[in-house]
Design brief:
Layout: H1 2-36, H2 39-46, E1 58-66, H3 70-79, H4 90-95, E2 98-103, E3 106-107, E4 121-122, H5 127-133, E5 137-139, H6 149-163, E6 166-168, E7 170-171, H7 174-177, E8 181-185, E9 188-196, E10 211-212, H8 220-231, E11 236-242, H9 253-265, E12 269-273, E13 281-284, E14 287-290, E15 295-297, E16 308-317, E17 320-331, E18 337-339
Parallel strand pairs: 1-2, 1-15, 2-5, 3-4, 5-6, 9-11, 11-12, 12-14
Antiparallel strand pairs: 1-16, 7-10, 8-9, 13-14, 16-17, 17-18
Pfam families: PGA_cap
Organism: candidate division CPR3 bacterium
Protein name: CapA family protein
Length: 342
């Protein structure tokens, strides 16, 4: 009996050991295969893993004529705030990646009036408002840049430079006046050049003399060369023109010829100023033309049309323009614009 009891005990011990070994092996195997077959690993074999990279959109804003003298300055002083004209638009500007406008008055206390009763020279303190607003680039290619002579013009350029605001379409030499302003924003290279067809061709910058960048329908071959050269180094090329006829709601034939010639040469977006009223925005080929954005900050409260304007909102993705949205602007009798967001 004792031998049998020992034998039984041995058998039981061996059986228990075998069971424990089996459970251990089974558990390890389960853990191993569980790691291999989690839900995420199975789904990853069926569906591509979603990327966290979101294509960033760039927003550009283009505004109309900005004149900070005369009646505009009167209301600035009435409110004792040099930021007054820009108080309603600052927040919108700050959300954009680039803001561009036409500066219709030199900012200077120098020079002498050249003769016209419609001559504009803004107090240097108005620069505070431009800086406050967040405007990045202004065109100085227009028919008021030499209202107070080259001294005031050069002084205004220096003040813009000191304030960190880029200018285009004018300079102390022809080379500077024709220089492309380039901004690299979220991987997209944007270039801006500007010309005026208004004023006088005598105001054109010389090799060693200040002035603006001049354009007319006899210089289209030069325009083509300028645009082709500029386009080589940018993804999107914006060309600003000061052209057309004042208070006319439709573009002139000259505006259409110059704008389409610019696009044929490689421009992606045409921005027009000078009409003081809104003119059409249209697509031509794969590019866009805003013939006239009207007023943005001005004191022309003699008609409803001159108290309205457009802001052109341009959305950019993957180095190209994907959307162009005209936003209406209402200008108060105190020359303060409000952008109507859709």
């Amino acid at each position: 009996m004792k031998l049998k009891e020992v034998s039984v005990v041995k058998t039981v011990i061996l059986l228990i050991f075998a069971i424990l070994l089996f459970v251990t092996l089974l558990g390890g195997s389960f853990i191993f295969w569980e790691e291999k077959f989690t839900a995420s690993s199975v789904l990853s074999n069926v569906l591509p893993i979603a990327s966290n990279v979101v294509e960033e959109q760039t927003v550009l804003l283009f505004v109309g004529d900005i004149m900070l003298d005369r009646g505009v300055e009167f209301y600035i002083q009435q409110h004792d705030d040099w930021r007054w004209p820009f108080l309603n638009v600052k927040d919108i500007f700050q959300k954009a990646d680039l803001v561009f406008g036409n500066l219709e008055s030199v900012i200077s206390d120098k020079g002498e009036k050249m003769g016209s009763m419609y001559s504009f020279r803004a107090d240097p303190k108005t620069m505070e408002g431009l800086v406050f607003s967040g405007i990045d680039v202004v065109s100085v290619a227009n028919n008021h840049s030499i209202d107070y002579g080259p001294e005031a013009f050069v002084d205004s350029l220096e003040r813009l430079k000191e304030a960190g605001i880029d200018y285009v379409g004018g300079g102390v030499t022809r080379n500077e006046a024709e220089t492309v302003v380039v901004k690299v924003i979220k991987g997209t290279t944007i270039g801006i050049i500007a010309y005026s067809t208004k004023g006088s061709p005598l105001w054109q910058a010389g090799e060693n003399s200040p002035g603006i960048s001049w354009m007319d329908s006899t210089r289209l071959s030069q325009l083509k060369k300028d645009i082709e050269a500029a386009k080589e180094n940018v993804d999107i090329l914006v060309v600003s023109f000061h052209f057309g006829e004042e208070y006319q709601k439709e573009p002139s034939m000259t505006q259409q010829i110059i704008s389409k010639a610019a696009i044929d040469a490689g421009a992606d977006l045409i921005i027009g100023h000078h009409s003081h009223v809104v003119q059409p925005v249209e697509q031509y080929k794969d590019s866009w033309i805003a013939y006239g954005l009207g007023n943005f900050i001005f004191d022309q409260n003699f008609s409803p049309d001159t108290m309205e304007g457009l802001v052109l909102k341009v959305e950019v993705e993957k180095q190209g323009i994907v959307n162009v949205i005209p936003l209406r602007v209402n200008i108060s009798k105190e020359s303060q614009p409000t952008i109507l967001i859709k």
